[in-house]
Fold this sequence. Notes:
The structure holds 2 protein chains of 2 kinds. By secondary structure, chain A is mostly beta strands. Helix content of chain A is 10%, strand content 56%. Chain A has one domain. Chain A has 3 helices and 21 strands. In chain A, helix 2 packs across helix 3. The radius of gyration of chain A is 20 Å and the shape is globular. By secondary structure, chain B is α/β, with parallel strands linked by helices. Chain B has a single domain, classed as P-loop containing nucleotide triphosphate hydrolases (Rossmann fold). In chain B, strand 1 and strand 2 form a beta hairpin. In chain B, helix 4 crosses helix 6. Chain B is globular, with a radius of gyration of 18 Å. Chains A and B meet through helix 2 and helix 3 of A and helix 2, strand 7 and helix 3 of B.
Amino acid sequence: MKLSKLDLDLLNTIADIKGVPSGALNIRLNGASLIRQSSPNISVGPNADGTGLIVEIKPGTRDETVHVPVVLTQAGLQDKVYNTFIVGEGADATIIAGCGIHNDSHAISRHDGIHEIIVKAGAKLKYLEKHYGEGSDAGKRVLNPTTVITVEAGASAELEMVQIKGVDDTVRSTIAHVHEKGNLKIIERLLTQGEQKAESDIQIVLEGTGGTAQVLSRAVAQGNSFQLFRAALIGKAACLGHVECDAILMDKARIRSIPEIQAENADAVLTHEAAIGKIAGEQLVKLMSLGLTEEEAVNTILEGFLR
Amino acid sequence: MLKLEDICMQVSNDNGENIEILKGLNIKFQKGKVYAVTGPNGGGKTSIAKVIMGIYRHSKGHIYLEDEDISELSVTERARKGIGYAFQQPPRFKGLTIKDILNIASPEADLIYLRKYLRDVGLCPEDYLDRDLGAGLSGGEIKRIEMAQLLLRAPLISIFDEPEAGVDLWTIQKLLGLIVSRYKNNPHKTAVIITHNEKIIPMCDEILVIDGGVITAQGTPKEIWHLIKDEIECKVRDQCQGDVIYEIK
């Protein structure tokens, strides 16, 4: 099977790749693996029950990237995949995931990606996941990612999860366990428009002494859309955690933000802050005083905010 | 040249009553000159700047730029015609970098120029270009970046609103030297500095004292220095029930 121009455009949008990259890779197209390749340090293979992948990054691997994007162009397809990623001890790697849906029909196209990520002791992971939808008809584009991540002792992980646009419905679930001196940073950026709905539920359990976690959420809701953001930090040891949710609300959209911190150890230091508001008038005026139109100023502010 | 003709501006107070902030101002800002606009707090200095930029709407009068009536133009249109304003309290932008805002200020300027103008305002380009314009910068840093934008844009009329606020003495001296050298005797440009700083005033070509929405004194620093002194003394006397607590040597 060949990649069409549409497939390539979607891949470019969600994974910033032009054509098929070298190195470890799995491109999933319409519910099946289209291209799969391993590298000397990263093996990409099917899991035991054939429902997804196991990606294993060898201990000590340095600066390598594995791409696992998903593209749905078949209208009405309900796709579900279970992937496991194991980042070996002391490795330093990047996983580029993401999903792009093109749906021109009346039927619902949906992808549920269930990812388990284990970052072994001393390893370092950067995980990028972009979601994007497009299409000309009323058929909904639905994306429901579930990510369960374990950050072992002394390991660190940064998850950057972005919903670019065009996703009608999403329920995102992220569960993390951070062990001794482990470090986790989650950056989530969501844009909803029209009648779209997005729900994000993040729960981080800081299990070990010296563990740290940070959640940075940026949300923009336009039109009549709705977003619900919940982030819970649970400190079970002497640890540091911070949740920050910033949201820009436009038109008739609604955002509900629920940061939660739960300390089960007297030496757990957990903080949160949340702010929802419209674009500040002074920001608009400032950019207009540099020659931008009001529309250009709004777009500049939103692009920066969601960058 | 920028000309303000019989400019009035009203705002509503908490009781819904209209209060006149600017009362029939007539000002001509000539090319090649650096102007200082000074006077007590609440006198109308920043209001004049914002009326010129189009941020505040005047209730009466006309504003002419190069003989064109720009009274009805938007902020964007005035910016494109050649008016620039460095805000007294510039807003912050999450996610936009200093490089981004400088590129917006002057899209045609290349990286060499961006670096140069950051250095001019006392900021090391290597440390600042990619920094976020959000909460991580101090008030003084934000202020310097604001001035760098206006210096980089170099429009026909550049209005600096209290450039000294939050900026250390050494940097402000350097910046003022820069403004004076760029605008004084420049046949195409005008600089207007809104200031409370008595050290800035002697560096300017002409001083306007604004109080209660009207010009109470205007002239060269030499001509009106004694008036400013009297003005300030008078104000301080009034506010402090007769005790003079401010003295200009």
